[in-house]
């Protein structure tokens, strides 16, 4: 019985759409996050003068707000994925579940 349910799910076109959409979205966010993170790391490695330069008359350098941006960006990307997962991906999963159970 369990194998029959698995086969029904695998044959469902909605399941294939869900996997394709979720994978594409996840890999896109991963690529953007890696670009931001590794861009910051490359700045640290190859342009220390830029990150060490002061933002104004105070003592803060550009490295601090850029580092904070990377952290905040990570939280925003995570929130974006969770929001889409809770709306679109959960709805698709429920629709697949309903079709397979009937």
From TrEMBL:
Residues that span the membrane, as ranges? 25-46, 66-82
Looking up InterPro entries in the UniProt record yields:
DUF485, Inner_membrane_assoc
Q: Which GO terms describe its cellular component?
A: plasma membrane
This protein's superkingdom? Answer: Bacteria
The reply on keyword Membrane is yes
Q: Which UniProt keywords apply?
A: Membrane, Transmembrane, Transmembrane helix
Kindly give the Pfam families that the UniProt entry links to this protein.
DUF485
Q: Which PANTHER family match?
A: INNER MEMBRANE PROTEIN YJCH
What protein am I looking at? DUF485 domain-containing protein
